[in-house]
Amino acid sequence: MTAPAINTDVGEGFGVWGPADEGDLLDQVTAANVACGFHAGDPDILRRTCEASASRGVAIGAQVSYRDLAGFGRRFIDVPPATLVNEILYQIGALEVFARLAGSRVSYVKAHGALYNATARHTGHATALVDAVALYDPGLPLLCQPRTVLWERATAAGLRPLAEGFIDRGYTDEGLLVARSAPGALVTDPAEAARRALRMAQTGMVTSVTGKAVRIAPDGEELSALCVHSDTPGAVAMTAAVRTGLASAGITVGSPGDLVPGRAEARP
Q1: Which of 150, 206, 226, 255 would suit a FRET pair with 176, their CA atoms being 20 to 30 Å apart?
Q2: Does some domain include residue 98?
Q3: pLDDT per residue over 224-263, tens digit each?
């Protein structure tokens, strides 16, 4: 069985707002999706988050988003695809500087919020994300959901799409995420989260909010990453329960794409 990464969103503050110390959560994960300044984050936060991640051997990922500080990146913005390519490159580049200063590197890319959801179906924005990663480093893994437009475009472009499951989020019958405003959007019970994570890791399946068994892993493959959002109530306890549950089943955890934290092998 492939060792899945456990990833979480961090660095999601701005100025005096947001958590000052996310160390307890970083102690539990193997990959940090770091906000790059467009939905959250500023230079001070980016630097200290990269330092906190690198010091723990946690892989650093660029969590790119629409330019939407006021809406926390959870609002769709109809930005021209060519502009979106440049905005994504801008975000990855900003994080790369601080990751290098911390002795690490950007090891993968993942979209945040509305951009993540939109690229499941929006051809223009999915293509923009793929184009940006291909321009920056085609060897970088791209965390996303299989059977989406983004997955198809990434595969066609020769990128490395990695399938992830969301431990703390509800799923539709189509294997996509339930809107945060809808019933069943969040899972907050650590025991339930641990059961979900184990099932995802072992079978690639999840139960949707309607009770349907849905496959969220690629056909014939396993999930490469499991995500817990840092702003989900009880995120630290939930992630600890997930780690314990996986370990009890003999499942180890790793980094996205089996990259050593701080090393992107396709980049000199």
Answers
A1: 255
A2: yes
A3: 999 999 989 999 999 999 999 999 999 989 888 654 333 3
Is residue 263 domain-resident? no
Domain span holding position 230:
5-166+223-258
Measured in whole angstroms, the distance separating CA 225 from the mean position of its chain's CA atoms is 8
Provide the angle, in degrees to the nearest 10, between the axes of the packed helices 81-101 and 123-136: 40
- Name the residue type at position 98: F
Residues 180-191: pLDDT tens digits? Answer: 888 889 999 999
**What is d(CA 268, CA 263) in angstroms, rounded to the nearest whole number?**
10
Here the CATH number for the domain that contains residue 235 is 3.20.20.370
Q: What is the distance between the alpha carbons of residues 162 and 256, in angstroms, rounded to a whole number?
A: 8
pLDDT tens digits for range 22-36: 999 999 999 999 999
Pairwise CA distance, residues 68 & 153, whole Å: 25
For 144-185, what is each residue's pLDDT tens digit? 999 999 999 999 999 999 999 999 999 999 999 998 888 889
Number of other CB atoms surrounding residue 97 within 10 Å: 14
Residue 212 lies in a domain: no
Q: How much is the pLDDT for 198?
A: 96
Q: Which two tokens stand for residue 263?
A: 């090393």
**Measured between alpha carbons, how far is 142 from 169 in angstroms, rounded to an integer?**
20
Q: How far apart are CA 49 and CA 31, in angstroms?
A: 12
Evaluate whether residue 217 is within a structural domain: no
Distance (Å, whole) CA 85 – CA 78: 13
Question: Angle, to 10 degrees, between the axis of helix 43-55 and the axis of helix 81-101?
Answer: 60
pLDDT score at 3: 82
Cα–Cα dist 9/34, whole Å: 6
Structure tokens at 48: 């200290």
